[in-house]
Design goal:
Blueprint: E1 5-6, H1 16-24, H2 44-61, E2 67-72, H3 75-87, E3 92-97, H4 100-109, E4 114-120, E5 144-147, E6 149-150, E7 155-156, E8 168-171, E9 188-192, E10 203-208, H5 225-230, H6 240-257, H7 260-280, E11 285-286, E12 297-301, H8 305-317, E13 320-321, E14 332-335, H9 342-358
Parallel strand pairs: 1-13, 3-4, 3-5, 5-8, 8-9
Antiparallel strand pairs: 2-10, 6-7, 9-10, 11-12, 12-14
Helix pairs in contact: 1-6, 2-6, 3-4, 7-9
Length: 360
């Protein structure tokens, strides 16, 4: 069977060249006589892998020297708790509610202190990024929390809130490495790797050094950023193979794509192909307001649930996987992360045109 076009929101598709390289090195990595899956995380060979992975990530994102890069486990969901455990000193934060993952972060943070919801887009099913009034920001907040790109609802912040001296914290799981980022504007960013960086199992945290330090004695050791920073992400066995694949993805971004500026241009082109069709279609429509649209996640509907189901069923038959929208939203969603080739988006639009013609 030939490879399908996988539009999954995560775990998502990986670059074919990365998969082929991993296959070639599966039994024998770099003449070590063993797979990366088998080798000790304390070995010199593996030390080179994780060191190279961090170095490439720092280069691509231009991460300042006063930021730590942590390779952790537990996904974004563990970060919803880990962030307030480590950073909520005055027991007050600001947060913008723009979707399911911001809601979950809100629920966890409330266990540790006061959460000031400065804005929400729940009134229109999270289909836009709300305008923010700086007058509503808490000057004594420990941090200001956003979900930069909303995987389920397909929205994205195109302008960051100006939070002054309050550290900006962002969940960047579904947009990291899709375009250049000014890391210095954030106190901390985090991402589950399974969308744009590698396989599930790895979570990357990039945090400014001055924000980590002593935590309450009740915080579990494994949930202390300082512990992981002091041990170079090796306090316990890290997700070794996921880090290795992440390194290969970063090499692909650097050597094959030519960096994040080029990746951004490719992503803009892919998104334009799909959005331009949706905006001109008489059957399909995008659900997100144009000013808030994501380049990574594109939800759309026909307006008829039965027709949506028919489209999803036929899309599978035509080699397009995971176009069904999130269970909380319905409809369809095309996640067009870095590894999705332009040809995949063009093929999807071609199929959508045929479906529209047959069902008009």
């Amino acid at each position: 069977m030939s490879r399908i076009y996988n539009f999954s929101a995560g775990p998502s598709m990986l670059p074919e060249s990365v998969l082929k390289r991993a296959a070639e090195e599966m039994l024998d990595y770099n003449n070590s006589g063993q797979s990366v899956m088998e080798m000790s995380h304390r070995s010199k060979t593996y030390e080179q892998i994780i060191t190279s992975c961090e170095s490439l990530l720092r280069e691509l994102l231009q991460i300042p020297d006063n930021y730590k890069v942590l390779f952790l486990q537990g996904g974004a969901s563990s970060q919803f708790a880990m962030i307030p455990m480590n950073l909520m000193k005055n027991h007050k934060i600001d947060l913008v509610l723009t979707g399911q993952w911001a809601k979950k972060a809100h629920a966890e943070a409330k266990k540790y202190g006061e959460v000031n919801v400065v804005a929400s887009s729940a009134d229109k099913t999270f289909s836009y990024i709300p305008q923010l009034d700086p007058a509503s920001f808490s000057k004594d907040a420990d941090y200001f929390y956003i979900c930069l790109n909303n995987t389920i609802y397909g929205t994205h912040y195109h302008t960051l809130p100006d939070t002054g001296n309050v550290p900006l914290i962002a969940d960047v799981s579904s947009c990291i490495l899709s375009e250049p980022m000014d890391i210095s504007k954030f106190g901390l960013i985090f991402a589950g790797a399974q969308k744009n960086m590698g396989p599930a199992g790895l979570t990357v945290v990039i945090v400014r050094e001055d924000l980590i330090g002593e935590v309450a004695p009740t915080v579990p050791t494994m949930f202390s950023y300082q512990i992981h920073a002091d041990n170079q992400s090796m306090y316990n066995t890290p997700p070794t193979y996921a880090i290795y694949i992440c390194k290969l993805v970063l090499e692909w971004l650097k050597n094959d794509i030519g960096g994040l500026e080029n990746m951004h241009q490719i992503n803009q082109k892919k998104a334009a192909i799909l959005y331009d069709f949706l905006d001109s279609s008489k059957l399909f429509q995008a659900t997100v307001e144009p000013a808030s649209r994501s380049l990574m996640n594109v939800p759309f509907i026909t307006g008829n649930e039965e027709l949506d189901k028919k489209f999803i069923a036929q899309s599978i038959e035509h080699g397009f996987a995971n176009l069904k929208g999130h269970r909380s939203v319905g409809g369809m969603r095309a996640s067009i992360y870095n590894a999705m080739p332009i040809e995949g988006v063009e093929a999807l639009v071609s199929f959508m045109k045929e479906f529209e013609k047959a069902n008009s």
